[in-house]
């Protein structure tokens, strides 16, 4: 007979189960409370960091110094809240674990930055105005830069490592509220790394490049974005700049007509010849078709030396949109019969000048007047913060390229976005790229636009990256009758007036191979080449007014299928819309 009592073993099992349930309930409550607190602390880090950045930009170092401890406190608190064993244990829970991992990793990044990067930046802010970086009138005070290089190097190294770690955090695996917080912090880290990295590069490069030791000369190549080339646009005009002890001036101006086509082309890389023939080696206008500015810049310098018999220290290439950013800082600009604002400068430079002056020589004169007026306004600007901001915005959009004839400087430039070298894949993810080169023979890219979509996933067991480019000719239907012949090309190069002919080159991650290519769902003949270790597929696209087409290239193998895939593209008048698309395995 039973005495009504459960066997000891069964009671022991019940106790264990009860204890486990109680532990899970308590642990869940523990991490939920700490998780909510951690996310709140991270949001406070982002808010305080934004306030501190604004204070430094405004020159209010006392306020920035008061905010800095708050950033450190919030960051340390977030790290402490997400580093205990219970939290780490929940990282292994299926479905939910990625949320805990993402928050912990973001907290670690924030704490590292607050501990190791904020203090050096604040320390040097007292020695140099970070908003204007020593820029007054037409001169940059180079003296303080040497003293701030070391602290900026330390802060830049910390932020660069933090950005790499932040980019590897899988926000897509987290729930929407946490994913948003992760992305917000990741954007803050990327912005900080970019800004401090640029400041460090400036502290190293500006003194020698602006003539601290001896005068320097540079060719300024101005690109016309209405006729696209890989680096931005066809070379329209050039100038020689002189830099001496931080002071910059224009020494000479030149036009492409001053550089006749060469009977024998200059040496070109195999990839350039495969994609564009020997044109970039013959015509100075087409040198910017070369997608690697470390090659293009050296060639522009050589053409200048051959034509004028004087060597230069470097080349700076800018596109027309830089003028728009600069006028935002300098105010309205008058040249020829035009008065331009930041809203009207691009239509004037890229369209109205051609409608007003049919003679290319007259056009060149007005372009030279515009360049002189803009340069003079920039150098005499009483708003150095706005001017530095305009230059930074142009740089962020890849509209400024710099090549140096001095190897140690060129090595630093080539490693930065300013150097215009082909991107390098790494821990922050692989790159894909899209290059646009106009072959219409006019200025029709004022009327074109692009949309770039990437999709990553697995197709038939292969990690795959798809790049889709939609290219549109928005010219009016009656463009042949209403637009100037110089704009349409007037059929001189075999393209009917109003139509646009474009070489669209798409390259994949380093080492990846081409798996499939189509245009609007159909196969067609394409060019193929290698850019370093990147496979490139180039379509020759002809569009009448109002027409649009979509080119898709799929890559497999090394670097393909990576969620961190980034896009590099030719800078255009209107920055192409880029986004991640849904992956489909067709």
Shape: globular
Count of helical segments? 17
Low-pLDDT residue intervals, each spanning 5 or more residues: none
Helix content: 40-55%
Number of strands: 19
The gyration radius over C-alpha positions equals 28 Å
What can be said about the biggest beta sheet?
A: 5 strands, mixed
Note the gap between the termini. 71 Å
Classification by helices and strands: alpha+beta
Strand neighbour order, sheet with most strands = 5-4-3-6-9
Q: What value does the average pLDDT take?
A: 86
Please tell me about this protein's structure:
By secondary structure, the chain is of the alpha+beta class. The protein has helices spanning 8-57, 61-81, 85-90, 97-116, 118-125, 145-167, 176-209, 270-276, 279-282, 293-308, 321-330, 345-356, 360-379, 384-396, 407-414, 479-482, 485-488; strands at 135-136, 139-140, 216-224, 234-244, 247-255, 314-319, 333-335, 338-340, 400-404, 431-438, 448-459, 462-473, 500-507, 512-519, 527-531, 534-543, 548-557, 566-569, 577-580. It has a 5-stranded mixed beta sheet with strand order 5-4-3-6-9, sandwiched between helices. Strand 7 and strand 8 (338-340) form a beta hairpin. Helix 1 runs antiparallel to helix 2, helix 4 runs antiparallel to helix 6 and helix 11 (321-330) runs antiparallel to helix 14. It is globular and about 105 Å long. The N and C termini lie far apart (71 Å).
């Amino acid at each position: 007979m039973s005495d009504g009592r459960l066997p000891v073993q069964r009671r022991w099992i019940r106790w264990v189960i009860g204890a486990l349930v109680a532990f899970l309930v308590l642990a869940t409550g523990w991490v939920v409370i700490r998780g909510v607190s951690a996310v709140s602390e991270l949001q406070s880090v982002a808010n305080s960091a934004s306030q501190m950045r604004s204070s430094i930009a405004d020159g209010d170092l006392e306020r920035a110094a008061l905010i800095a401890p708050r950033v450190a406190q919030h960051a340390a608190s977030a790290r402490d809240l997400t580093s205990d064993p219970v939290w780490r244990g929940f990282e292994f829970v299926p479905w939910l674990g990625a949320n805990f991992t993402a928050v912990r990793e973001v907290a670690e990044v924030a704490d590292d930055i607050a501990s190791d990067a904020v203090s050096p930046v604040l320390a040097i802010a007292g020695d140099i105005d970070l908003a204007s970086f020593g820029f007054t009138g037409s001169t940059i005070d180079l003296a303080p830069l040497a003293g701030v290089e070391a602290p900026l190097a330390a802060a830049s190294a910390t932020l660069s490592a933090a950005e790499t770690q932040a980019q590897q955090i899988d926000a897509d695996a987290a729930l929407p509220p946490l994913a948003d917080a992760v992305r917000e912090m990741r954007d803050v880290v990327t912005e900080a790394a970019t800004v401090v990295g640029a400041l460090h590069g400036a502290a190293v490069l500006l003194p020698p490049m602006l003539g601290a030791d001896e005068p320097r000369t540079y060719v300024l190549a101005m690109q016309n974005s209405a006729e696209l080339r890989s680096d931005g646009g066809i070379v329209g005009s050039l100038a020689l700049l002189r830099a001496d002890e931080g002071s910059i001036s224009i020494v000479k101006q030149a036009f492409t007509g001053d550089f006749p086509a060469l009977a024998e082309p200059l040496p070109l890389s195999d990839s350039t010849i495969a994609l564009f023939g020997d044109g970039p080696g013959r015509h100075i206008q087409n040198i910017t078709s070369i997608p690697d500015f470390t090659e293009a810049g050296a060639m522009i310098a050589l053409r200048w030396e051959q034509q004028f018999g004087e060597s230069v220290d470097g080349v700076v290439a800018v596109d027309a949109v830089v003028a728009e950013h600069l006028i935002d800082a300098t105010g309205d600009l008058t040249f020829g019969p035009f008065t331009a604002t930041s809203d009207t400068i691009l239509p004037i430079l890229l369209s109205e000048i051609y409608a007003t002056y049919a003679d290319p020589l007259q056009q060149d004169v007005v372009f030279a007047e515009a360049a002189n007026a803009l340069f003079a306004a920039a150098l005499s600007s009483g708003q150095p913060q706005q001017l530095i901001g305009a230059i930074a915005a142009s740089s962020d959009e890849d509209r400024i390229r710099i090549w140096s004839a001095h190897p140690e400087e060129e090595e630093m430039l080539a490693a930065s976005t300013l150097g215009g070298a082909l991107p390098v894949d790494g821990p922050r993810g692989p790159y894909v790229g899209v290059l646009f080169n106009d072959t219409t023979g006019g200025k029709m890219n004022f009327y074109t636009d692009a949309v770039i979509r990437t999709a990553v996933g697995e197709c038939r067991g292969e990690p795959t990256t798809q790049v889709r480019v939609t290219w549109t000719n928005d010219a009016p239907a009656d463009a042949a009758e209403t637009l100037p012949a110089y704009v349409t090309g007037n059929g001189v190069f075999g393209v009917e007036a109003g139509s646009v002919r474009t070489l669209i080159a798409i390259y994949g991650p380093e080492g990846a191979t081409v798996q499939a290519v189509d245009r609007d769902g159909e196969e067609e003949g394409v060019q193929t080449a290698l850019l370093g270790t990147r496979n490139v597929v180039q379509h020759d696209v002809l569009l009448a007014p109002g027409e649009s087409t979509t080119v898709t290239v799929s890559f497999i193998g090394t670097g393909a299928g990576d969620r961190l895939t980034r896009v590099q593209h030719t800078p255009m008048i209107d920055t192409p819309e880029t986004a991640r698309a849904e992956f489909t395995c067709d």
